[in-house]
Specification:
By secondary structure, the chain is mainly α. It has a domain of 70 residues. Helix content is 62%, strand content 8%. It contains six helices and two strands. A hairpin with a 6-residue loop joins strand 1 and strand 2. Helix 5 crosses helix 6. The chain starts with a helix and ends with a strand.
Length: 138
Amino acid sequence: MAAIIIAIIAHIALTRSRPGWHMLAVGGSRRSAHNSGISVRDTVFMTYVISGFCCGIAGFLIACRLSGAGPGTGLNLEILALTAAVVGGNSLGGGRGSIAKGADGRHHRAGHDQRPDPPGLWHRHQPDGAGPACWRWR
């Protein structure tokens, strides 16, 4: 529920406010944004501050859900986030994308993670339980 609320607030902030437009402009082309009178340094600084704040909230929510946190709690979650962004259609180069596209990519990624195995396919797990060692058809 918190993620949905944050996503709605971020979408409105990016698409309906002047600082949001500045962030999108700087993400698209720093030179063009500078030439149009946008303070690129201040915009980049505030973007990093907002990103750090959102990361702090995410870390807090994960720690609450797991009833604690350790040094490897969020290990490799960045790969899932990048995959969701790319699958949703956001550009890794910046300037093109939206919160809705990221949410859509996360929705598709979650569906892929929870999809059952195709009929007739089984997997044999590795002895240490690290995951499937091989896939075979029955």
